[in-house]
Each structure stands twice: as structure tokens, then as C-alpha cells.
């Protein structure tokens, strides 16, 4: 093949991959979270007032039937067409045996995301339009998962999409394929044939039916086709059959609720997936012992959101509301609830949504927070009052509903913004990589990282200060003011540390703090700085150590710190100790390695005990030892004025991790630590010039040139900060291999792009003076990170091998 043919094949192969990557990054993703609600999440108090939860949160129904009619438009039930085609259903609504509500839903209006919305109470991803053709199991919390966990027996018949989303949930089921749109009859007959048998069975509490025939007719004939009316009549007869049984159960003290709804609507052309009115408004019918308000005209229909269904049905069954829920309960619109129960349910629902809401930083947060607190105070006042006026109940309920509406709309709007913060860090990293095409950007790379880091800390400070101002008047329990102070100190530290060592090319000659400290008349300053750094490191190690080993750690780290100080005394870099013998520093370094070996033996003994008695702590213990050892060796090799960078990096990492956790931004941990490692790399005085390598670090404690040891010392000293940043990231996010994969992927991606750039620039004037040294730095950086990642993965795999059912835990002692 010719070169042009190879190029064409390459383009044809790479184009679909590029498009897929772009689509993946463009469409917002929804983070459902891993938390599964439990009965402990049901409030036992309204603030400090004890309530009888067992009495207020009893199930309203013992049996629940959900009948989903695919593509059931609002006018198929409410308009004259529906009244003529579905007489039984309309008679149930007319005699108050059932309630009709207008359910609104968001785009995309296709089956799979609509099922997710109904069962989880959250907004599905827009890209689910494509995933609708290949559903995968839903791992997040849901109404069905809660029912299963609480001992309910579930049965299902209909669209097999449910079985794909919720495997191992149903005790009995029979799925039908939804994509043979020419099938109008058999796809529904396979559901109907099970109904009578299940109505006669008494061993289930939740039954779900999903009919597809109406949707298939719509795709072929449209909503006005000849087959629509017969299909609606068929559905009407089934509704009547089930309604009679539900009425019988209710008359015989078996409370039951029958729900009929559409998953989405249908365009006048017959399709769906968009956001037109006929696609996004569907009927929601409840049949049972209802208490329905009378609608006099079209404008008085009660409107709900489709994502309200999960919370409402959970409460009806007495289940915990799914943790993913963003919807509000509308039971008061269909049941006559006691005042105390009504207010409690609204409080529970509002509190659950408010816990999601308080993680956001928006301009309206202070106003909503104030409304929430005021309403809760009114609720407490009503609970404590001897006389409870009904007018006060209505006011409190309307206040709760108003807050729910505001919070829900804010949370829904925020879902589509998901991922924008992640993309900011991705774009920043990409811009840094692209900057390698310019020689000046390589020479002054530290300026890029200084700008990125300062901007990141400033943005986090802005976010935390916004939350502080929003909550400080109403919630004294938050710690955002502490985080603001820490972030402000980080910014001040950034401004100081960037002047610790002048680096780069154009401004490397300018005076810096290190140059001043190395002057003879600044010996006291150098001494105090080194002592401060060593004491800081000792304190961090002591504070993070397990209680039973704190004193052992204190003694070992103190001796090691003394060795480090004395080795700099021998080099005449810091203040001398009176009566201390003259030394070349070799004995001090040898003592350091002896103590380090003793520390490693102690670590091995503790790991052995850990494997024997407490295997779940293996990973955290190993990572702690790795970090401790790496910091000790780096402190020995660093110049005395650079030792302070080690505790500063640990504190910065801990602070940033806490800030990300409090702001629900843990997805950014990888990028923030990746940037953190690079920033401290340049704080140390490194650059992309080979002249900036601290060659003296390679000969610490050596009498003669030893290539392997010298090379190892130089590598540890030079790449101390990036490796430490990676270890700290994994320490905070144990057993999460995704972080390791993402970290090393970006490192190797940077290396790959740079090899392409340097190939293109191979005839550049500065190829040997600028681009080639950078290639050596990047190559070694990548190799070091690969080795570090491999070491961490071995530790994680050992943990998983020892405890197969182990899940990630939070470290109890964090740096």
C-alpha cells in the first residue's frame, strides 16, 4: 500500500474513536453515588424534638401494582378521545376511586432513562438515548432495591429492559422484547396471561407490568392510527380487572395501591425521544382508597414530576427514600393524611433533598437555607404546642412544598452541569501538554504550573467562602470557615514557596530565598528553617501513627531527624552543635540508614501482625509505611532549605482532600494531586535544563562514586514531589484502582504527545538545548511513575487477595 493509503486507513480508524471520546466528554454524566439508604436515614428527631417514627412512618399499603403503558399520552386518558376509548378508567376517576395527576418528565423521552427516573428519583443521562438499546444493570439506590432489602417479594411481566436494569430483584418474571415494533398483540398478551394468576396469589407485595403494544402502534401508525382505540380499550379492560381486585383487597383490610402511568408520551408523528408537550406530559393514575381533590377545569390538574414517583411510592410502602432521589412526595394529593404524619413526611423529604442541595454553591443557597431553617422551627413549634391550629399545618406544609420545589429545580438544573469542573482540569492539563510545542513554554514550564495551582486554590477558596457566608448564620456545625483559613494560608504559602528557588531560564538569575539562606550571615535562618521542617515532619508522623505505636514512631523519627540535621552540620550548611566532633557526614548518613533499616524491620513485623489479626488495615498500613519511608529518604537527600517542602506538601494534600470532600468534588482528586506534584517539583528548583539537577544529592554519605546508588539518590531527590503526591492520593482513596489508572494514563498521555511534538520539532534550532533535555526528564518521570503505580497495585491486589469481600475504607489517620 502507498503512504496515502496508510494515511487514509489511519484517518478512518481514528475518526470514530475521536468522535466517541468527544461525545463522552461533551454529554454530562450523572453520578448516582454508591450510598444505599437504610432505615437509619429515616429521622428520629425533628432537630432536637423526639418523634415517634414507628407510628408516623407506617406503610400505607401492603400491596403495590405498577402498570406502565409505554407511550401513554396525556390526551389518551384526559381528553374526549380517552374518555371514549377508556370508559372503565374514567368511571373510576369519576367516582373518586382513583386520582388523575399530570406527570411531567425531562428529555430524553425513551424507555430506559424514564424507568431510571421513576425508580431512582433522579435525572437520567441524555446519552441514555443510545444506551436504551443496550441497558446495563443499575448499581445505584432505587425503589426496587429498597423493597428487596426490606423483605418484599416482587414480580414483573413486560419490557425486558427492567430485567436488564434490575437483575436479581424479581422473584418471578417474564420479559418481552421491546424492539420488534411491528408486534402489536403478542407483546402484550405475554403480559396479560400472567395477571389473573398473580392476582390470585398472595405471596407478593409489589407487581410491575409494562405494556409495549401502544408504543409499537405509535411508531407504525402514529397516535391517530386505527389501532390506537382498540389498544386503549384493551388496556382499559386490564385496568378494570386489576382495579376490582384492588378494591376487594381494600374492602377486606389488605390495603393496596394500583398505579397506572406512561413512561413517556408520543409525538403526533408517532415517535418519541424529544421534548415536545405530548412527549413530556403523561397521565399518572392512582386507584385504591384515594382522597382526590376535584378538578373543575384543565388548569386545575395537579402536576407532579416523574422523578417524584420513587419517593412517593417508597413512603407508601414504608421504605427508606432512595439516596439518589431528587423528587418530592405527593401523597397528600391522593391520601387523607394525619397532620403529624403529613408534616413528618415533608420534613423527611425536605431534609433528604437538602443534604444534596447543601453540597452546591449557588447564589440562592442562603435564601433557601434560611427558609428551610425557619420552616423547621415552625414545625418544632407546632410539635411543642398544646393547641395545634389547622391553619398552621397548612402554612408549614406549603412552606415545605415551596422549599422542595426550589431545591428540586436547582438540583435538576445542576445535573446537566455535571462534569464541567472535571473538564476544566482536563482542559488545563491538555493546554499544558500542548504548550510543549513552544521552546519558551518548556523553559518556563514552572510558570504554567504556578498559574494553574494558584488558580485552583483561589477557586476552591471562592467556593468555600460562598458556602461559609451562606451557612454561618444558620448552621454553626459546618467547618467552611476553617477550610477558608487553610486555603488562604495555602495561597500565602504558594506565594512564598515559588520564590524559594528561582528556576527556569529567563529569571533563574534573580535573587531567591535559597540564595539568601546560603549566605554566611543567614546561617541562623537556615538552621531555624531546617529545624522547623524536621519538627513538623516528626509531629505529622506522630499524629498520623496508630495510638499503640506513637511513642515508638516519635523516638525513631526523632533519631532520624537528628541524623539529617547532623549531616547538614557536617556540610557546614546550618548552625553547629557545641562540642560536636568534626565529621564529613558519612557516619551520620550511615546511622540514618541503620535507623531506617530498623524502621523497616518494625514495619515488617507490624505487617505480619496485621495479616494475622486485622487484614482490613493492610493497605492503609502499607501506604503509611511507604509514605513515611519516602519522606525520610527525601528529607535526607534534600538541600536544607528544601526539606520544608515535604511537610508543606503533606499539609497541602490533606487540606485539598478535605476541601474536595466537603464540596462533593472528589472526582477531581486525581488531577489536583497530579498538579500538586508538579508544582512542588518546581518549588524545589527543578527545571527542564540538565543544569538544575542537584548533583550533590547523588553523593550524600558516599566515599566514592557508586553509579547505581548515585543514580537512585538523584532520582529520589529530583522526583520526590510527584511520587509523594501520588502516594498521598492513593492513601486517601484506598483500593480505588481507577485513580491509579487515571493518574498514570495522563502521565503516559503527556509523554506520548511530547514524543510526537519533538518528532515534529526535530529540526528546531533548540532541539538539543531545550527539547531533548525535556524528553529525558519526561522519560524518567514516566518510568518512575510506572514503577510507583506498579508497587501500589501490588499492595492493593494483596489486600484483595487476603480479603476478597473487602471494600474501600476511609483512613482514620490522615496526613
TrEMBL record:
Pfam families linked = Phosphodiest, PIGO_PIGG
The record's CDD domains line, in alphabetical order, gives: GPI_EPT_2
Give the domain of life. Answer: Eukaryota
Keywords, in A-Z order: Endoplasmic reticulum, Glycoprotein, GPI-anchor biosynthesis, Membrane, Transferase, Transmembrane, Transmembrane helix
Q: Indicate where this protein is primarily found.
A: endoplasmic reticulum
- Copy the pathway line from the protein's UniProt record: Glycolipid biosynthesis; glycosylphosphatidylinositol-anchor biosynthesis
Q: Does the keyword NAD apply?
A: no
Q: What sections of the protein cross the membrane?
A: 6-27, 524-542, 554-570, 590-607, 619-638, 712-732, 744-760, 780-800
- GPI ethanolamine phosphate transferase 2 C-terminal domain location is 413-786
Which InterPro entries has this protein been placed in?
Alkaline_phosphatase_core_sf, Phosphodiest/P_Trfase, PIG-G_N, PIGG/GPI7, PIGG/GPI7_C
- Single GO BP term: GPI anchor biosynthetic process
UniProt-listed PANTHER family: GPI ETHANOLAMINE PHOSPHATE TRANSFERASE 2 (PTHR23072:SF0), PHOSPHATIDYLINOSITOL GLYCAN-RELATED (PTHR23072)
Protein name as catalogued: GPI ethanolamine phosphate transferase 2
Task: Provide the taxonomic classification.
Answer: Eukaryota, Metazoa, Ecdysozoa, Arthropoda, Hexapoda
Amino acid at each position: 500500500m502507498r503512504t496515502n493509503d496508510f494515511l487514509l486507513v489511519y484517518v478512518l480508524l481514528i475518526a470514530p474513536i475521536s468522535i466517541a471520546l468527544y461525545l463522552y466528554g461533551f454529554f454530562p454524566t450523572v453520578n448516582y453515588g454508591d450510598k444505599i439508604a437504610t432505615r437509619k436515614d429515616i429521622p428520629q428527631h425533628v432537630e432536637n424534638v423526639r418523634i415517634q417514627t414507628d407510628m408516623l412512618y407506617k406503610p400505607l399499603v401492603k400491596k403495590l401494582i405498577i402498570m406502565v403503558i409505554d407511550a401513554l399520552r396525556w390526551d389518551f386518558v384526559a381528553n374526549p378521545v380517552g374518555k371514549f376509548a377508556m370508559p372503565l378508567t374514567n368511571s373510576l376517576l369519576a367516582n373518586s376511586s382513583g386520582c388523575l395527576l399530570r406527570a411531567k418528565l425531562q428529555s430524553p423521552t425513551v424507555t430506559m432513562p424514564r424507568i431510571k427516573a421513576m425508580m431512582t428519583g433522579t435525572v437520567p443521562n441524555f446519552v441514555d438515548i443510545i444506551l436504551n438499546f443496550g441497558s446495563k444493570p443499575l448499581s445505584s439506590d432505587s425503589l426496587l432495591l429498597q423493597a428487596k432489602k426490606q423483605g418484599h417479594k416482587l414480580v414483573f411481566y413486560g419490557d425486558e429492559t427492567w430485567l436488564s436494569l434490575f437483575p436479581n430483584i424479581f422473584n418471578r418474571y417474564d420479559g418481552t422484547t421491546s424492539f420488534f415494533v411491528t408486534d402489536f398483540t403478542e407483546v402484550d398478551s405475554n403480559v396479560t396471561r400472567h395477571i389473573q394468576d398473580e392476582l390470585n396469589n398472595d405471596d407478593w407485595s409489589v407487581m410491575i407490568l409494562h405494556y409495549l403494544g401502544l408504543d409499537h402502534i405509535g411508531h407504525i401508525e402514529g397516535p391517530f392510527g386505527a389501532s390506537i382505540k382498540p389498544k386503549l380499550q384493551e388496556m382499559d379492560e386490564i385496568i378494570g380487572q386489576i382495579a376490582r381486585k384492588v378494591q376487594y383487597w381494600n374492602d377486606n383490610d389488605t390495603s393496596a395501591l394500583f398505579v397506572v402511568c406512561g413512561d413517556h408520551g408520543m409525538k403526533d408523528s408517532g415517535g418519541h425521544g424529544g421534548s415536545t408537550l405530548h412527549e413530556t406530559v403523561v397521565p399518572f393514575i392512582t386507584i385504591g382508597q384515594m382522597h382526590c381533590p376535584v378538578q373543575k377545569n384543565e388548569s386545575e390538574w395537579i402536576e407532579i414530576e416523574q422523578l417524584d414517583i420513587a419517593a412517593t411510592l417508597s413512603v407508601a410502602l414504608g421504605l427508606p427514600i432512595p439516596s439518589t432521589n431528587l423528587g418530592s412526595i405527593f401523597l397528600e394529593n391522593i391520601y387523607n393524611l394525619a397532620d403529624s404524619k403529613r408534616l413528618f413526611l415533608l420534613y423527611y423529604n425536605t431534609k433528604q433533598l437538602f443534604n444534596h442541595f447543601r453540597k452546591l454553591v449557588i447564589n440562592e443557597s442562603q435564601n433557601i437555607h434560611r427558609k428551610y431553617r425557619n420552616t423547621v422551627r415552625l414545625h418544632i413549634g407546632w410539635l411543642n404546642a398544646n393547641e395545634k391550629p389547622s391553619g398552621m399545618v397548612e402554612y408549614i406544609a406549603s412552606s415545605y412544598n415551596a422549599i422542595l420545589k426550589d431545591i428540586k429545580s436547582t438540583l435538576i438544573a445542576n445535573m446537566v452541569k455535571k462534569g464541567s469542573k472535571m473538564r476544566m482540569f482536563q482542559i488545563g492539563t491538555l493546554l499544558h501538554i500542548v504548550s510543549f510545542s513552544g521552546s519558551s513554554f518548556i523553559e518556563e514550564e514552572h510558570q504554567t504550573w504556578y498559574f494553574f495551582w494558584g488558580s485552583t486554590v483561589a477557586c476552591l477558596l471562592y467556593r468555600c467562602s460562598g458556602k461559609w457566608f451562606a451557612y454561618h448564620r444558620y448552621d454553626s456545625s459546618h467547618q467552611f470557615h476553617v477550610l477558608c483559613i487553610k486555603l488562604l494560608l495555602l495561597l500565602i504559602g504558594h506565594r512564598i514557596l515559588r520564590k524559594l528557588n528561582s528556576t527556569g531560564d529567563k529569571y533563574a538569575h534573580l535573587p531567591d530565598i535559597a540564595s539568601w539562606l546560603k549566605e554566611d550571615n543567614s546561617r541562623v535562618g537556615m538552621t531555624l528553617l531546617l529545624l522547623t521542617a524536621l519538627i513538623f515532619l516528626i509531629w505529622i508522623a506522630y499524629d498520623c501513627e496508630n495510638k499503640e505505636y506513637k511513642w515508638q514512631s516519635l523516638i525513631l523519627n526523632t533519631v532520624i531527624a537528628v541524623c539529617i540535621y547532623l549531616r547538614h552540620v557536617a556540610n557546614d550548611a546550618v548552625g553547629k552543635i557545641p562540642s560536636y566532633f568534626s565529621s564529613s557526614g558519612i557516619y551520620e548518613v550511615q546511622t540514618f540508614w541503620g535507623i531506617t533499616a530498623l524502621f523497616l524491620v518494625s514495619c515488617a513485623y507490624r505487617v505480619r501482625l496485621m495479616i494475622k489479626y486485622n487484614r482490613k488495615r493492610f493497605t492503609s498500613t502499607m501506604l503509611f509505611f511507604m509514605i513515611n519511608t519516602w519522606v525520610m529518604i527525601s528529607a535526607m537527600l534534600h538541600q536544607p532549605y528544601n526539606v520544608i517542602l515535604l511537610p508543606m506538601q503533606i499539609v497541602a494534600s490533606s487540606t485539598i482532600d478535605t476541601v474536595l470532600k466537603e464540596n462533593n468534588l472528589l472526582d477531581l482528586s486525581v488531577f489536583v494531586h497530579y498538579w500538586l506534584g508538579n508544582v512542588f517539583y518546581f518549588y524545589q528548583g527543578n527545571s527542564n535544563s540538565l543544569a538544575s539537577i542537584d548533583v550533590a544529592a547523588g553523593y550524600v554519605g558516599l566515599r566514592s562514586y557508586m553509579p547505581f546508588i548515585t543514580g537512585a539518590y538523584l532520582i529520589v531527590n529530583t522526583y520526590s514531589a510527584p511520587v509523594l503526591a501520588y502516594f498521598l492520593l492513593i492513601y486517601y482513596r484506598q483500593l480505588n484502582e481507577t485513580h491509579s489508572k487515571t493518574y498514570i494514563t495522563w502521565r503516559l498521555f503527556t509523554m506520548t504527545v511530547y514524543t510526537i511534538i519533538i518528532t515534529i520539532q526535530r529540526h528546531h534550532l533548540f532541539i538539543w538545548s531545550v527539547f531533548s533535555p525535556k524528553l529525558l526528564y519526561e522519560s524518567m518521570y514516566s518510568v518512575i511513575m510506572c514503577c510507583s503505580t506498579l508497587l501500589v497495585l501490588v499492595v492493593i491486589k494483596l489486600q484483595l487477595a487476603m480479603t476478597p469481600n473487602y471494600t474501600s475504607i476511609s483512613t482514620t489517620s490522615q496526613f
